[in-house]
Amino acid sequence: MREIILTLHILAAMIWVGGMLFMVIVLSPYVRKLPNSVELFQKVGKRFSIVGTFIGLPILFITGIGNMHSLGVSFSDLYNRTSQYASLLHDKIHLFILTFLIAILHDIYFGPRANKSETHRKITRVLGVINLFIGLVIVYMAAKLRFGG
Question: Measuring CA to CA, which residue among 142, 131, 16 is closest to residue 88?
């Protein structure tokens, strides 16, 4: 069972971080050249928001707790930072919470308003880049945890 939970966790992380990388590396350079770029970004962003933010991130949260349980790490271990592993996992969870909050702000507030003002468009872009950076840091932390913290 723990292999299934870990597989779902990795797949959800791939969707979340991979989707953001796709948007920055592939979609953005192409769409920016089009006359209706803001509209296209909003349509793709809305779709990614459903899959990445509202499905992927909750799956990451649930499977993350499952992974923690299967490894014998308790919430008390995290809170008290009883080991290097628990300390790193504690930090990873806090970054996950931050990325979730930024995603909600990006997807629900700023993204839908990006076509109304340049300020909203810039804030949306900055929040997306910050979230991508945090996502990459979380992936690094996950790799480090895999090797013992």
Answer: 142
Asked whether the beta carbons of 124 and 106 are under 8 A apart, the reply is yes
The CA distance from 35 to 126, in Å, is 21
CA dist., res. 6 & res. 109, Å (int)? 32
pLDDT tens-digit series, residues 6-51? 999 999 999 999 999 999 999 988 888 888 888 888 889 889 999 9
Query: What is the rounded CA–CA span in Å between residue 76 and residue 68?
Result: 12
Give the pair of three-digit tokens for residue 45. 């962003």
pTM of the model: 0.90
The torsion angles phi and psi of 133, rounded to 5 degrees, stand at -60, -45
CA 31 to mean position of chain CA atoms: 22
CA distance 60 to 5: 10
- Using CA atoms, how far apart are residues 60 and 6, in angstroms rounded to an integer? 10
